[in-house]
Amino acid sequence: MVYVGIPKGQADQEEEVLRTIQDGDSDELTIKRFTESREKPGALWHIYAAKDTEKIREFLKKVAEEQGQENPVDHDPIHDQSWYLDRSLRKRLHQEYGVQGWAIVQFLGDVVFIPAGAPHQARTGGHHCIKVAEDFVSPEHVKHCFWLTQEFRYLSHTHTNHEDKLQVKNVIYHAVKDAVGILRANESSLSRP
């Protein structure tokens, strides 16, 4: 979070921000960072375990049906990013599916790492903010990232996530190419007894 600006002329802004943090199920230490340390919160994140993705997807489809919405085959309620799980939906997700995420308030200067494939959502808490985001593939999560790109292929061709933004196949190719290059460069020293 590289910038958090507090709008001028809004006297009740701090109360709204505190309410957002509390409604987001933040812990007491996080609330104290805002109320006592006077740090500037920029965004509220909810991050879920990647293993719970199917349960969340099923839950969102169920809620959509209850609200009379369609669930087209070539769309995905997670990748569509058309849902925000408010407090009541998060509570229902936990009660009906046993899925509970982590609430993280990102303050000015904080970095949030999201594990590969972890469903997540973010919203600003009343302040204006600017964040810098960077996608990357760690070696430990290449398999999962590759699986995600296969999942994207089933979305409609007009979907914003239809393409492989991480270019996982290129990452794998260059990682293997670099490893082979290093092994060849050190081949003579590796073959000595």
UniProtKB/TrEMBL annotation:
The segment(s) forming the JmjC domain are 1-153
Which coenzyme or cofactor does it need? Answer: Fe(2+)
Q: Which Pfam families does the record match to this protein?
A: JmjC
Q: What class of enzyme is it?
A: oxidoreductase
- SMART domains the record matches: JmjC
Q: What's any one GO cellular component for it?
A: chromatin
> What's a Gene Ontology MF term here?
methyltransferase activity
Protein keywords: Cytoplasm, Iron, Metal-binding, Methyltransferase, Nucleus, Transferase
Under catalytic activity, the entry for this protein gives: N(6),N(6)-dimethyl-L-lysyl(9)-[histone H3] + 2 2-oxoglutarate + 2 O2 = L-lysyl(9)-[histone H3] + 2 formaldehyde + 2 succinate + 2 CO2
InterPro entries registered for this protein in UniProt: JmjC_dom, LSDs-like
SUPFAM superfamilies, from UniProt? Answer: Clavaminate synthase-like
- Which residue stretches, if any, does this entry annotate as coiled coil? none
An individual GO BP term: methylation
Key word Cytoplasm present: yes
List the protein's name: Lysine-specific demethylase
